[in-house]
Amino acid sequence: MKGRPMADRSRSTAFAGVGTLAMVELRRWLPRRAIVLAVASLPILLFVTFALGGEADTPFGEVLAVALTGWSIVVVLVVVGTSQGVLADAVEDGTAAWTVSMPVTRKAYVLAKFVGAAPAIALGAVIVPGLVAYPFLAASADANSEFGAVAVIDALQRDTSAYAGLPSLGEYAIMLSLIALLAVYLLAMMLLFGSRLTSAAALLGFGLASAAVLIVFNGLGIEEGTPGVAFVAVLPNRLEELAVVPALVASAAWSACAVVIAAWSFDRRPL
Amino acid sequence: MTGFWALLRGELSRWVGRRGLLHLLGWTLLIQGQLYLSLTNSWDSYSAFWGFDLVVNLLWLFPPLGAIAVAQSAIAEERAWDTVGWVLARPVTRAAFVTSKIVGTALPLILLAVVTQGLIAYVWVPDIEPERGFAAVEPDLGRYAAVLGVLSLLVLLFVALSVALGTVFRRRATVATISLIVFLLFTFPPGERSATWHEWFPGGLVEGQNNGADYKRISEYLLGGSFDGAGAVAVAAIAVLALTAFGAWRFGHEEL
Amino acid sequence: MTTHAIETRGLSKHYGDLVVLDGLDLEVQTGSVYGFLRPNGAGKSTTIKLIFDLIRPTAGSVTVLGHDAQHDGVLARSGVGYLPQQPHFHPYRTVRGVLSYMAHLSPRAPRGRVLHRRIDELLDQAGLAGKSRRRAGVLSGGERQRLGIAQALIGDPELLILDEPAAGLDPQGRREVLDLIEQMRGRATLFFSTHLLDDVQRVADTVGVLCAGNMIAEGPLGEILEAPAAAYTVRVLGETTPVRARLEQEPWVVGIETHLRGEQELWEVQLAERHAGGLLLDALVDAVGLDVIEFHPTDPSLEFAYFDLVGGER
Fold it and tell me: Contact A69/A179 with Cβ under 8 angstroms?
């Protein structure tokens, strides 16, 4: 077909160069961009929580649920916003064409983009700020607390298991993992859209739409097989009902599928 | 502001043709499609909506997001194409350049995403109401125009924000992310909403329950109530002017 | 009417410790064709950016068509047409759209039907008449250059600033650009920067040589060409090798460039002093086994002058 390149069929070198390219991509994200993500994400999480906290008689589980749900939406926006150009910018400025003119396949290039960016996004936007915020979140569980350093220090000195509804660190880590997988899924979707689209408006629009679709699935009650399970897992007592391992695997599978389709699509794109 | 009209003409000419048609089609599908599905289905979350309250709901949510998506690259793309120096070598001021970007991006979006969709909805939504057990209500056209005006102001606000951020940050990803977070906090500020926020913050105009049990303040105005959001509208307008001035000042000091 | 189309006084630009321009004094006479010669990194782009107020000077001033470039920038730029180095246009605009856009930004450009005709003329001149509906984003480098020249002319400028006007063009295109510059002589002041010495020698009547942020020579072309040492063209036959080796030992010979012409050799002999021509002739006449067929001064070349000046500054 006119203008469409042949797919790369050299199986033995199909993923040659992935490691090098992935390290290059990772170095682009770490440490500076990842730190910026974390620095942006953490205060928002704390702000959301403290603004909600301090309400008398509210079980901490509910406070945390609303805080994490709101924060998850922020994570969605941050990830879609920051990763919209992961592939699209490289195509626009010519570095993609320059890179694939070397002995690396286009599939390897896309995979490397994902492998390099995913850890930075997961760590920077979700894991690190989430874990750092854990002791601070407990401060909002105190019905008499007000936003401020005194309440936080006070809370840190207490036994946090005394707060009803506070998830254990393990449960909290599972919640963060699901949110991180949601973020990684959105990164994969931005790679998919970036493999075909050049318009910035279209990229952002489709990125937000892919997150909105997950919310629609949640509304229809089929969240457990999708990355949108992250929005549900933070709700009070829902984590106990959730099959955690299948949920983690399903979320990861969606990301993998998106990356595979992105690689296939980019393989056929004229540069 | 020398050169503003010529630059604006250049910006608007970009929307004549394929881009404008795609936007018209996309916004119509998005807004009218959602409107139709929501009003003709018995989905719990929308079943109690009064039709025009849902119109307001959709027009304050999606057009500003679209504004951010389009305006995030208003300055960044000129830098990427290396056309900034070429344009500014003409007898135009930098302030005119930035202002034309804001107006030239906001105007088509307002026309296609707010005004056109609002007018289309005005034509068919009243016919749906009786089927759902509501009395057919056609808001007063003047009030409706005023509400569309306020919603247009919100679009202009986010265009101005994105363009102003574009004069500071080189990467459109950064501009988009910050604008999206501001939008989120603007429309869903956490915590109890104080009277001050209610009165002065533009988000207070569209505060209301999503299940239709409590119409938005701006929707109450459509139904014939008084409009008590003058403060919030003024704040939004002042914010637009301030962001435009900031963007013009910031860009004026940039070494190209 | 001002006598200088462009005038800089003590113009300096520093980026921290990096000095890009250092007290540049430049005068471009109105109506002249000024060739701005410079090696890479000399500060040419910086000078042009300062003319258009795209960057601010560290010290000094720039006046364009009688207006201060910084404080009256809009007035200064009103009569200027500009061809950037490697011109870029909005990729979504058509070729015709680019010219129309530039015309509307130029107060002196025609409007309405006159503009339409003017665009047709310029497209014809640029060889882009058949591509007027093509998007600027898909043009080749040479086509972009031609479009760049056309858009520089659309506003009927008093001053044309062309940055590497022949870059990216084939020899035919290059000749057309030089012809265009010749045509514009008398109608506008032309200021063009290039590293192609032949181009400057062909069309410029004034030359400025910029090196390391300083103007190291400026003036009418003839004055620049009188500066270097003499050169002679000699055509010889016979025992050329020993004679050439002896001449190259002489202190008044800078170098001999040899070209073969069948059995004959053509020598370009560079002399260190102008009066050494007589010494050269004596040495050739006295040489045993050598027949001198041609002996005359070589046409003065700007290339020799340029490298003489720039080489001395490095």
Answer: no
Residue C258 phi, psi dihedral angles, 5° rounding: -110, 135
Q: Are C80 and C158 in contact (CB under 8 A)?
A: yes
* C190 SS3 class: strand
Mean pLDDT, residues C113-133? 93
- Interval C61-98: pLDDT, tens: 999 999 999 999 999 999 999 999 888 999 999 999 99
Question: What backbone phi and psi angles, to 5 degrees, belong to C102?
Answer: -65, -40
- Confidence band (pLDDT; 50, 70, 90) for C101? very high
Contact residues for B25 (Cβ-Cβ < 8 A; gap 6+):
none
Residue-wise pLDDT tens digits, A10-63: 545 667 778 888 888 888 887 777 877 877 777 777 666 665 554 545 566 666
Q: How far is CA B109 from CA B59, B68, B123, C22, C275, in A?
A: 12, 11, 20, 49, 78
Please check whether residue B95 is in contact with residue B9, taking contact to mean a CB–CB distance below 8 angstroms.
no
CA distance B36 to B43: 12
Structure tokens of A82?
Answer: 């920051």
Task: Reduce the DSSP state of residue B207 to 3 states and report it.
Answer: coil
Cis status of the peptide bond prior to B108, with omega within 30 of 0: no
B195 membership: H or E segment, kind and range? helix B195-200
- Asked if C80 lies within 8 A of B89 by C-beta distance, the reply is yes
Distance CA B27, CA B64 (A): 12
DSSP assigned state of B130: G
- Give the whole-angstrom CA distance, residue C37 versus residue C45: 12
Q: Are strands C231-238 and C264-271 parallel, antiparallel or unpaired?
A: antiparallel
For the ranges B106-120, C66-80, C118-132, C231-245, the maximum mean pLDDT occurs at: B106-120
pLDDT bracket for residue A138 (50, 70, 90): low
- Between B105 and C182, the higher pLDDT residue: B105
Alpha-carbon gap, residue B35 to B154, rounded angstroms: 20
Q: Give C211's strand partners.
A: C214
Query: How many angstroms separate the first and last alpha carbons of chain B?
Result: 19
Q: What is the C-alpha to C-alpha distance for residues C260 and B93, in angstroms, rounded to an integer?
A: 60
Question: Rounded to whole angstroms, how far apart are CA atoms B1 and B99?
Answer: 9
Is A219 close to B80, i.e. CB distance below 8 A? no
Q: How far is B6 from chain C (nearest CA, A)?
A: 6
Q: How far is B85 from chain C (nearest CA, A)?
A: 7
Q: What is the complex's ipTM, to 2 decimals?
A: 0.84
Tokens of B120: 């289309």
Distance from CA of A60 to the nearest CA of B (A): 15
**In the structure encoding, which two tokens stand for residue C185, read together?**
């002589």
Indicate whether A150 pLDDT > 80: no
| Measured distance CA(A50)–CA(A36) in Å, rounded | 22
Q: Kindly state whether B86 is in contact with chain C, defined as any CB-CB distance less than 8 angstroms.
A: yes
Q: How far is CA C141 from CA C88, C98, C138, C172, C196, in A?
A: 10, 16, 9, 15, 18
- The answer, for B9 touching chain C at a CB cutoff of 8 Å, is yes
pLDDT per residue as tens digits for the range C166-190: 877 788 878 888 888 888 888 899 9
pTM of the predicted model, to two decimals?
A: 0.81
At A143, give phi and psi (nearest 5°): -65, -25
